[in-house]
Model the fold of this input.
Amino acid sequence: MGKPRPSAPTISEVAAAAGVGRATAARTLGGYGYVSAEMRDRVLAAADALGYRTNQLARSVSTGVSHTIGVVVADISNPFFGGVALGISEVASARGFDALVLSTAEHLEEEINAVNVLVDKRVDGIILSSAACAADSTAHLQLPNEQGIPLVLLDRLIPGLDLDAVVIDNRAAARHATTELIAAGHSRIGFIWGPPVPDRIEYRRELVEAAGRNLWSDGERLTGYLDALDDAAIPLDLDHIMLGEKTEMRAYEAVTRMLALDAAPTAFFCTETDALTGTLHALRDAGLAIPSQVSIVGFDDSSWAAVMNPPLTMVRQPMLELGRQAAELLLRRIDSGAGDAEPPMQRELETEFIERESVAPAPTHR
Amino acid sequence: MGKPRPSAPTISEVAAAAGVGRATAARTLGGYGYVSAEMRDRVLAAADALGYRTNQLARSVSTGVSHTIGVVVADISNPFFGGVALGISEVASARGFDALVLSTAEHLEEEINAVNVLVDKRVDGIILSSAACAADSTAHLQLPNEQGIPLVLLDRLIPGLDLDAVVIDNRAAARHATTELIAAGHSRIGFIWGPPVPDRIEYRRELVEAAGRNLWSDGERLTGYLDALDDAAIPLDLDHIMLGEKTEMRAYEAVTRMLALDAAPTAFFCTETDALTGTLHALRDAGLAIPSQVSIVGFDDSSWAAVMNPPLTMVRQPMLELGRQAAELLLRRIDSGAGDAEPPMQRELETEFIERESVAPAPTHR
Done:
């Protein structure tokens, strides 16, 4: 056997040798974007010394790739989407792509407009977290693919629409969190928040239908909660499901109302940050101690949750990883070009249950 | 006197009459972007009924305005910039403009690239929160104006650069917060965080110089802290100023080190969210109770701060308003076009000191 052939140097190796960031190396070697003269010289000298050959990047340039991707999120002020956007930017930037982010404030009409803007701006691909519910028109989600622009759904699937997607396993996450509360002895568990329907719901079937008409991710979390109750043969109490507008203030009101019930919840599972802070306000105003009088589990771990008194038990979503994997999948589709015959793929990432100190056995009376 | 001439109907009035959002009305009347056939009919009928004349918007279209603005932020995963971006999007969307957001991870090279990308994409204007420090090159901040693309600085001034800007009065905010701690009886007040210089600092002059070489907003907050000490004739203790990398972990380490001093701080003023959560971790691990043993004031109010135990006293920045005013200033420049001879203007918004329960008199011994 002869001497093993050394593997081709990567952009990362060139960047490290030049002492510059990967994005700078990628831009220099790809011949696009801004790089200062000094940085360019350092990168080219390092590439030369390592024997780097511009292959894939050069090919991208020659096929007219614009090196921008579009990102459409439902709410840019939500730290969840901020973390996701950061993960996307990291991966895009390391490949020399810029990410243009648009926020739709959960309005479908804004989302349709955002897709049109990005197609007009000739981005190379789109990552989109859709506000569309099952009943909405989704023609705008198929438009980019028809024009040769790959699109990856992020965080939210659209039932019945077969597109590339990276999401988390919301149902398993909610089932796990609820099961932990049941294991601690709770059977009356408030669910904040349920589907945003204005009316009172009388039957489980109605609840499931209402959830199915709304956001996929919210519906999955409710289904996971119901799974856990079913597993433990605990009957559903519809008074323990928050309905209506999804705001911190409405969560406060719903929890306050639930606490006044004869069969008041002894624990709360809060599926969003605003749902959680609204619940915490209500528990404080009711003078209830966590976890001795009431237990609580949140969703969307933040650095705040760990410094609360007591530190809060949370479901942590892999925000950065969600963004990174969506960007990797999109860049792979962009690299493959129009000849890409691989069918759409849907990746489901696991969440992590972070056990801290906000769950305790249910009080025997309150 | 004759009958007063009725004022011309606004887009908002047309939108209200049509029962649609302002963005939809603006797009319909401006003749750009996506509007469904049904919405378009409703808007046009309402415009007709009210006698609306498309003047300004029609003029924009005829002069080749693309109805997109670029937004460059230092860190999209920071909720502060998320709130700012939301404020910008609201105002832009109500005028029928789409906001494209790019994040630079506080890297100047990424910022220069982002400006180039936005100029390439022919946006109508740029709002930018710069990572540039006093010593950095700022040619890229002048480039858009030279090409007839207005640029508004947001949150961070660049000393010596005369550009439109909307910022907060960081110095007054920090002076106020520190003065409140002094009024409660504290004279040993930890400042988390100071300039990110790696070396130990021996003299006040060195500290001020180091701050002057770094981010304007950070330097202003330090200056406000020093103002308050000077006002009360309290000598500066350099051991109470955190230096080094600005991360939650480094804040934790700095506070832990300060608590071991003979003259340990009895209070902490934390100028960023990560500085605050790092400090809270350190206080918890040291077993110190807030506020009976140590007082704390944070910066950047979040919904979490109000549900902490105890609720935290905070400096609230007007994030949404910062974004809104920057967008309004930018749109005014875009409307005025190339003939705009008005000199650059800098607006400084006030912060709010939110008194809660994390400040108490200094303990007589600890």
Remarks:
- Residues 170-317 of chain B form a domain with the Rossmann fold fold (CATH 3.40.50.2300).
- Residues 1-6, 55-63 of chain B have pLDDT under 50 and may be disordered.
- The first helix of chain B runs from residue 11 to 18.
- DSSP finds 14 helices and eleven strands in chain B.
